[in-house]
């Protein structure tokens, strides 16, 4: 039997693996801006990315996928966001295809590293919430199939509830008794088993039965 010390590493490994699987199952990668990507929005769409973000729910474990050309993505503090100031960034990316994991609860701020582009609407704030709990729904118990045994054969109570008396099994027919007695008389005469008085008594009984 394995000791407690040998089971502990296995238990911790199982818990860690389970947590990773749950996080992976519930995680979502969002394409920032959809097909538009990370670019300068139209004049009448200066809040394009904030509107896009407000229509979605972001949780710990999710990620943001930025696609852009001749631009950059800068993670900044609140002050840097409202002033389009990327001089003190938390993180900076300019590879054109950036994936940023959402690992902290709260508001995250993203702007273009180019101040002019940021002022034209290339900026976004995202509210990150706690992880989505994974719900388990047990399988529903299916109803019994139609045409069960109770529908095939009636119970004894159902049979008796009709008010009919149970029919008695028919006894032996009287003609069978006469035939048997007649055969016994013939055999008795043939083999001399019965006396004359006994034969007469048997015949009287046969007549009486008939």
Overview in brief:
With 210 residues, this protein is an alpha/beta fold. The chain has helices at residues 4-26, 48-54, 78-82, 115-119, 149-152, 156-160, 174-191, 196-209; strands at 29-31, 58-59, 63-67, 73-76, 91-93, 97-101, 106-111, 123-129. The strands form 2 sheets. A 5-stranded mixed beta sheet has the order 2-8-7-4-5. Strands 1-3-6 form a 3-stranded mixed beta sheet, with no helix packed on it.
Task: List low-pLDDT spans.
Answer: 14-25, 166-181, 183-187
Give the biggest sheet: 5 strands, mixed
Structural class: alpha/beta
Distance between the termini: 88 Å
Report the radius of gyration as a whole number of Å. Answer: 48 Å
Describe what you observe in this structure.
The chain is an alpha/beta fold and 210 residues long. The protein has helices spanning 4-26, 48-54, 78-82, 115-119, 149-152, 156-160, 174-191, 196-209; strands spanning 29-31, 58-59, 63-67, 73-76, 91-93, 97-101, 106-111, 123-129. Helix 7 (174-191) packs antiparallel against helix 8. The protein is rod-shaped and about 145 Å long. The model is unreliable at 14-25, 166-181 and 183-187 (pLDDT under 50).
Features of this protein?
210 residues; alpha/beta; three-stranded mixed β-sheet; 39% helix
């Amino acid at each position: 039997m394995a000791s407690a010390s040998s089971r502990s590493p296995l238990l911790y490994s199982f818990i860690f693996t389970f947590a990773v699987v749950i996080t992976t199952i519930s995680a979502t990668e969002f394409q920032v801006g959809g097909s538009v990507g990370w670019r300068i929005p139209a004049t009448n769409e200066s809040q394009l990315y904030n509107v896009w973000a407000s229509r979605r729910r972001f949780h710990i474990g999710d990620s943001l996928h930025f696609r852009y050309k001749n631009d950059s993505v800068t993670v900044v503090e609140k002050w840097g966001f409202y002033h389009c100031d990327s001089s003190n960034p938390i993180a900076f990316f300019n590879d054109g295809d950036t994936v940023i994991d959402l690992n902290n609860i709260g508001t995250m701020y993203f702007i273009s590293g180019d101040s002019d582009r940021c002022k034209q609407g290339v900026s976004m704030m995202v509210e990150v919430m706690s992880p989505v709990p994974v719900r388990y729904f047990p399988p529903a118990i299916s109803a019994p199939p139609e045409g069960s045994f109770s529908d095939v054969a009636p119970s004894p109570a159902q049979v008796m509830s009709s008010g009919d008396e149970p029919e008695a099994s028919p006894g032996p027919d009287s003609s069978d008794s006469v035939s048997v007695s007649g055969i016994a008389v013939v055999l008795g005469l043939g083999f001399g088993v019965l006396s004359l008085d006994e034969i007469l008594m048997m015949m009287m009984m046969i007549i009486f039965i008939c």
